Amino acid sequence: MKRTATAVWNGSGKDGKGNLTTQSTTLNKTQYSYKSRFEEGVGTNPEELIAAAHSGCFAMKLSFVLGGAGFTPDSLEVTSTVALEDGTITSSHLVLKASIPGISADKFKECAEDAKANCPVSKVLNCEITLDASLV
């Protein structure tokens, strides 16, 4: 399986602007700029998209891990905070709030750590990955 995305950028790094389109067209000429990346401008940015990818990938991987252990989650809510420092992504911090009927705290932690280590996005990120996981 392969997936594609296209970026178009016009102008200088600080004053230019661009757009992103994904194969599925979920992003369809979605704007991004210096302001949306480094300030609070309208549009998306690469770090936000990496955070979304990490949250989604981790949640799905955890669902598979839980299924393999005999559990079906009612809900998995995952937030990823990606840090960009001095031009380098240095960390992705995952916060998980999970509702999983019948699971023990130890089994929950084991499954969450497995998903953190083995989701495809975690494997590709070259940064510190941390996890705060709680059952709700």
Automatic annotation (TrEMBL):
Residues 1-23 are annotated as: Disordered. This is OsmC family protein. It comes from Niastella soli.
